[in-house]
Amino acid sequence: MTDNVNAAIEFITTYRRMEKQSYAEGFDTIGKCVKAHQRTHLCGSWQGRKRDFGSFFLNLSCASQGAFIEHWGIKIEGYREYCQSVSDHPGAAFFLDPPPMIHWLRELMKFFNNHSVTDECAPGIRLNPQPPKRDQFGNSANWGKYILKLKRIDAVKLLESLEARVFEGNMNTT
To answer: ∠ at Cα 102 (64, 74), nearest 5°?
Structure first.
């Protein structure tokens, strides 16, 4: 099992915990991850998105995404250097590729938000068992619930399939 798959399972476990927290607890987490001048805006964004972590996360800069990832104990190789480059040259945020771990988890969230949790979610990916109809809408909560209910070996296989698609450039996550 790759480090990316382990990280994804930890990330999903942790963001699902945040999605279930009270707004006050979510605001506390946000306050620990971002600079003071961003806190009010991002707490409002969290509240306005009704704890939809995927939507919230995808609207953060890569540096802020990395802050959440690292806050939750997931190592990001090259993160400090990336943040320093963006700090030294703010325009770099538009053309500099984020570290691979941020890229992977961001693409995973895009996939979750753009694909329903059904057997037809993507070519070559088979979901078994199917979740209940009420949990098939594509978002971070439904995908997180689905993956965390799978046997570990099945969750790993699914995430390995998605990881291969991301790093081969075959992830259709528009």
So the answer is: 90
Residue 67 in contact with residue 34, Cβ under 8 Å?
A: yes
Tokens of 102: 């941020």
Task: Give the model's confidence band at 141: pLDDT under 50 very low, under 70 low, under 90 confident, else very high.
Answer: very high
Containing domain of residue 119, as a range?
Answer: 1-174
pLDDT digits (tens, 9 = 90+) for 13-69: 999 999 999 999 999 999 999 999 999 999 999 999 999 999 999 999 999 999 999
**Burial bucket for residue 94 (CB in 10 Å: 0-12, 13-18, 19+):** exposed
In angstroms, rounded to a whole number, what is the distance separating the alpha carbons of residues 119 and 68?
Answer: 30
Enumerate the β-bridge partners of residue 122: 125
73: its two tokens: 């104990």
Q: Could you give the 3-state DSSP secondary structure of residue 2? A: coil
Q: How many independent structural domains does the chain possess? A: 1
CA 64 – CA 37 distance, rounded (Å): 13
Contacts of 123 (CB under 8 A, 6+ apart): none
Q: Would you state the pLDDT for residue 39?
A: 95
DSSP lists the bridge partners of residue 125 as: 122
